[in-house]
Amino acid sequence: MNACVHDERPVVFLMGPTGAGKTAAALWLAARLPLEIVSVDSALVYRGLDIGSAKPDPAERRRVPHHLIDLCDPADAYSAGRFRADARAAIASILARGRLPLLVGGTGLYFRVLEQGIAAIPTAAPAVRAALMAEMATLGPAALHARLAAVDPASAARIHPHDPQRITRALEVHAATGRPLSAHFDARHGSLSSPVVKCVLAPGDRAGLRARLAGRFGTMLERGFVNEVAALRARPDLDPRRPALRAVGYREVWRHLEGELTHAEMVTRAVTATRQYAKRQYTWFRSERDAQWFDADASHVLDELIIEIKSRANLVDY
Q1: Could you tell me the pLDDT band of residue 122, with boundaries at 50, 70 and 90?
Q2: Are the CB atoms for 94 and 100 separated by under 8 Å?
Q3: Which of 159, 298, 282 is closest to 170 using CA atoms?
């Protein structure tokens, strides 16, 4: 079939918390509409993080073109700025083929910088960074997060108290410029030129999602998640401080392999961390303007999603 679209074809965002069923929904939609999937997930960019990130398997990726998966090694860092450049390139190539980009994931910051642009944030002097890293090692992330809350409450509210990399970065920007990191984000540049259709797929029953996340982690363990982390841990160039290994679940399994947590403690902490992450995702996506919410548990949710996308993209022949 030939699709009739607006001159300005949209980019479709399919956002939502972890465990909401976004991957399955995206595959279902792509089988019925001229879509290609662009991953918006800070863990899926890493090779070797497969089971714990719920990465689409090779068969699923053969069925539908996927972009921004397995881009880099876990020893490397991947930034929101790099995501923005990679995503813009993928979107341009998809649109050039006459298809629509379906951006799927739960990393809210990536969606935000893609749509609204990214701030030009200065780099701190090496001495400032070194001093903050030394304080982080001595005092711990909670103490520095409290300091951040005093000078940049907006960033402190967005950054998790146990995220040393982002806490340190926000403090070094404040030290270098005298302005909070959040103020720099008010001066973004390079917003997305295409119109955006925003869909949030999220279970209306939070209790049901919590139970689903516990079962999901159990399935990951059955599929060999511990062995996956063991293979990463065997590499001499990796440790839990790497950004890739701060993905939910990986740190807890790593600590179990180090002997710091029993198996039962590892499961409890990993499930708790996943639930907390999902809660933060709900909060983030509720701040998204012009987003249409869909109950992932509703019996006709996929039909509702396809109607929304077809209507907004004017896909009259599908």
Answers
A1: low
A2: yes
A3: 159
